[in-house]
Design goal:
61 residues, mainly beta, 6 strands, globular
């Protein structure tokens, strides 16, 4: 389970702006760059090369 208090400390590694937590998909979203950072076993994966680009709210595969 992701600890929402971490949102006070975690920022997007690209934009340095706050991230939004998506509870349904268990991921963090950078709205500025439309990038999703997955959360694995409660730990956010903020590695840029492992992020997922989204387009209009849809994942790009």
């Amino acid at each position: 389970m992701f600890n929402k208090e971490l949102l006070n400390y975690i920022v997007c590694p690209i934009s340095r702006k706050p991230l939004t937590y998506d509870e349904i998909n268990d991921c963090l979203i950078s709205k500025e760059f439309n990038i999703v950072y997955p959360i694995i076993n409660g730990i956010p994966n903020l590695i840029i090369n492992e992020s997922i680009k989204i387009n209009n709210g849809e994942l790009i595969k």
